[in-house]
Amino acid sequence: MPELVTIGAPAGVPSGATAPEKRDRWANPYRAIPAVRWGVQGLYLAFLLFVGWEFWRFYQQAIAPGPMTATRPPAVESFLPISALVGLKRFLLTGSWDQVHPAGLTILAAAIVGALVARKAFCGWVCPVGTISRGLEWAAEKVLWRRRWPVVPRWLDLGLMSVKYLILAFFAWAILWQMPLAALEGFQRSPYNIAADAKMLLFFLDLSTTSILVLGGLVLLSLVVKNAWCRWGCPYGALLGLASYASPLRIVRDTATCNDCGACSRACPVEIPVHARLQVRSPECTGCLSCVAASTVPSCLGVSRTKKMSPWVLPVLGVGTMLAFWAIAVATGFWTSDVPLELLRRAYRMAPSIGH
After folding, report:
1. 23 partner at 20 to 30 Å CA-CA among 31, 37, 51, 233?
2. Coil vs helix vs strand at 97
């Protein structure tokens, strides 16, 4: 019989908190972490929704005759990771920043540096898909799985987890390995890349039946498996997970103070058995600090071997890195695209007919 792993309560961990555990949790000075995380994630999600609305207005004016009053928001390029990866390779080869989608490259670089410094804080504190996944997890716990989540075979969990790394390997091979400089520069100035943001908008405005079924399936799956897309399908998270290996910060457990209650493992959104490890080096750790907030012994878990370092340093460094990259890019002119407006309008009008 295959080994089973409990979704929501790792093997050997009680499925529900005891009364002393619930009482002791209030002595934890880090219990506010989940609420603060909701606030940060909510603000960023609201910001991106505003960006989407602003870009929709810009696109509608761009494809119509007449003057332009709307402005293209550069942050819309956060939805263009493939273009950003092309820009990253060209930057490494030439030292020149992408001038077509500079904000996209800035966001990718900030996320990678943030992972090197503070693990996958981008995934745990910023990414809007992570925020939606967390919301679905919360809804499932309130409505469907009040006692415990369903179980999934361990072999299936590991097998599906490899999917995102295979997707990442494909893009790394196709772009970082196969594309020469001439091809990179040709792609960047192609109508397809210039209109990539418009094509992304059109995708969401006119979802095909297949797209609706896939997205609906991911929503339903996320109600059964915590953070299903982030755990199994996101190549962006896979890249940041690999970069996070170099981070000096990681969850560290003090065996002398640990009472083996398992609260930290039950709180982990990616099902890492924190209570059974001396330190969490897994690339699946998002740096969300849910385990630290849930710990019934506040001194048990930290983010480094130095217990004097506050766990808050991890999200501060992670989110701070994103803001620092944005501020520097704006100040140095590496945030706004230099594509002329008329060229943008021409590319946007062609977008519906441009194939992949």
Report:
1. 37
2. coil
**Cα-flanking dihedrals φ and ψ of residue 289, to 5°?**
65, 20
Q: Most distant CA pair in the chain: distance in Å? A: 71
Quote the CA–CA distance of 37 and 288 in Å, as a whole number: 8
Task: Give the containing element (helix H, strand E) for 4.
Answer: strand 4-6
How far apart CA 322 and CA 277 sit, in angstroms, is 30
Q: How far apart are CA 114 and CA 105, in angstroms?
A: 14
In 121-136, which positions are buried (b, 16+ CB within 10 angstroms) versus exposed (e)?
A: bbbbbbbbbbbbbbeb
Domain ranges of the chain: 22-55+71-353
Q: Which two tokens stand for residue 85?
A: 């990866």
pLDDT in tens, 65-84: 888 899 999 999 999 999 99
pLDDT bracket for residue 129 (50, 70, 90): very high
Residue with tokens 């990539």: 196
Instruction: Tell the residue number behind the tokens 């699946």, with chain if given.
Output: 284
For 249-318, give the DSSP string. Answer: ---EE-TTT-----HHHHH-TT---GGG-SB---TT-----HHHHH-SSTTTEESSS-TTS-TTHHHHHH
Q: Give the H or E element holding residue 42.
A: helix 33-62
Mean pLDDT of 184-189: 93
State the pLDDT confidence band at 9, using cuts at 50, 70 and 90.
Answer: very low
